[in-house]
Structures are given as structure tokens and as C-alpha cells.
User: Fold Xylose isomerase-like TIM barrel domain-containing protein from Megasphaera cerevisiae DSM 20462.
Amino acid sequence: MVPILASSTLMWNASLKEMFCQIVENGLAGMEFWAQHFFYQEYDETEYVRLAGQYPMQTVIHSCSWDLNLSSVNEGIRQTSVKEVIASMELARKLGASEITVHPGHMTTTCCRSECAVIMYDSFQEIAGASVRLGIPVSLEIMEKTPKEFVTDIEVMQEVTRDLFDFFSYTLDVAHCDNEEEALYILDHLPSISKLHISNRQGSRYHTPLSDGDYDFVSLLPVLCAYGLPMVVEGYDPGRYFHVLHQNIAFLQSQGGI
Assistant:
């Protein structure tokens, strides 16, 4: 049985103890904690470490990404973006995370793709240096096909990482793919995939519950599990009753995933 984790954003307004209890009591292997979530809610690092000792589970950190752009032609924005990613990596070290997920940059405008690709490599060099210094492995995520995103396939990921391609590992987000065939193609051809993000999608609406969307996860889930990679259930729920998390857990239980 592959490890299945949940994104902290499925419990946006929960306390840290509530999160740990939800993960452990529902048989999940761990949590991918969004750094922006941690900083925004002003959670306590010491409390997290204490709870991690009380409720053993795997921790992965998702770097800050909202409002940031590692390939911005505005140097101030690029520098701030790198700074926020490195702050997320420092959080990962303090919380004992096994790795950090990082979103590549996107085009500032669609007319400056080549410039943005060069700028992104400069940011990756800084992030790689911080990875070595802090001892935190970095997993870059393949993005969805929206107008300004362009790191959406293996070939472009190789282009923007250059000689750092083998330094990083990679996260495949199934909902970012156009179809199930694309997800399986990437799984078969991209080396060093460290984990999968799993959720469904409805057209251009991303990260819907596994049982609610265009993908048939009844048939897709066992195929994904066969690759033996950890999977993180993604989504967002600001409510106090964790309905989306429980909907996903019920589906996974019905399919023997947990």
C-alpha cells in the first residue's frame, strides 16, 4: 500500500492538533503543509514538532507560491519570490520535513517566454544552493496549462533547469494534466518523480474531490498506486468540519487505498 498524505489546505482553519488527529485517525501517512498556510495562520513551530513526536507521520512542505514568480522580469519580485521559497525551506528544516515542493515561475507576459526561462534558471541556482545548505531536497512541480504557465511538460522542465535537471526531483500533479494518458506518459518518462498530487478536475476547475470530476479515479487510482510513489490528496476547505477531506477519505477507503 502506497503512502497517502493530505494537503494542509483541506483543513485551512483547523488547529495543529486537529490536523494531526485527522491525519492519524483516518489512516493517512502524513501531511503536505503549505508554508503560506503555516505563516498565514501563525502556527507555532515548537508545537508542530511536539505534536509530530506524539503523532508520528510524514511531513512534506509546499513552498509559498501565491503572488510569487521565480521568473519575473521585475527583479524585485523575483528576489522576493526566491526569498519566500528559501524561508519555506527553512521552515521545512525546522519541522523535520522530508522534502519541499516548489512551483516553477511563469511568464510575466506571454511575449517574454525566453527571457523568463533564463531568469528562472537564475532562481533555481539560488534555490539549489539553499537546498544543499539546509539539507532539504527540492521537488519541482509540473504546472497546469493556463495562459502564463509554461513549465507544463517534461521537455520545458529540462529546458529551464538545464544542468540542474538531475539535482531536483519532481512532483506530478494529476489534475494539471489534460487527461489520464498524459499523466501516465509523464510517469513513464520523467525520472526522479518523488510523489504525486492527486485530485480530480472539472474542465478548467482544478483540485475537486477524487470522486467528483472528469477523471475516473475508480480505474485510475490502482494504476497510479502500481508506481509505488507517495500520493498527496489536494484541495481546499475553509470549513470547520473537513467535508472535502472526509469525502476524499471515504472514496479512498472504498477503493482500498487506505
